[in-house]
Amino acid sequence: MTIDPAAAAYGIFQVVFAEMTENLAGALFRFRQVKQPELTFKQVFRMVFNKLLKEFEDDLKPASEPSALSDSLSAVRDACAAMKSIADWRNDRIHARVRQGDGGLALYNWRTGEPLPITYEECENQITQAIKVIVILEAHVPSLVGSLNMPDLIKQLLQTPDPLD
Fold it and tell me: Is 4 helix (H, G, I), strand (E, B) or coil?
């Protein structure tokens, strides 16, 4: 049995895409849990990718940009743009039409009828981009979530009577 390298790479891409989706759900969950402690991960994880991404981007909009966090916020917003691009590439291929051509089977965009390339190199590039997104989310979301807690912590500290008084 021989396995086409592009097909194998696409299968690996699907696994990495699932992991990226899980990381996005985890990021949204951590953001939301600050304001909604009763929220369960299951409620967030049930969302489809596009809804997860849109709601995460919406949750990032009101985030202030203290200088210490501006790099993290910028990196996560860039990661959101990358996720959209990765998902678009994937969706075109998931919903493709298959036609028999002179060179064998070929994928076509279901909306436009245009051929859709799917090469090992393309899949490898999408895998690399998705892994970068995962790393960015893992590296920057914890500090952003911590910044969401900061105003409440400061308020709590200011309202707590000084034990030395």
Answer: coil
The token pair that represents 60 in the structure block = 């990032």
- Write out the DSSP string of 30-61: HHHHHH-TT--HHHHHTS-HHHHHHHHHHHHT
Written as six digits, the tokens of 43 are 């409620």
Nearest by Cα to 118 from 8, 1, 16, 15: 8
pTM for the model: 0.83
pLDDT band (50, 70, 90) for residue 157: very low
Q: Could you tell me the two tokens for 91?
A: 């969706």
Amino acid 4: pLDDT? 82
Q: In whole angstroms, what is the distance from residue 120 CA to residue 126 CA?
A: 10
Of 27, 97, 25, 99, the C-alpha closest to 60 is 27
- C-alpha–C-alpha distance, residues 52 and 27, integer Å: 10
Q: What is the CA radius of gyration of the chain?
A: 21
Place of tokens 């009101």: 62
Contact 65, 82 (CB under 8 A): no
Q: Torsion-angle region of residue 104: left (phi > 0), alpha (psi -120 to 50) or beta?
A: left
pLDDT tens digits for range 16-50: 999 999 999 999 999 899 889 999 999 999 999 99
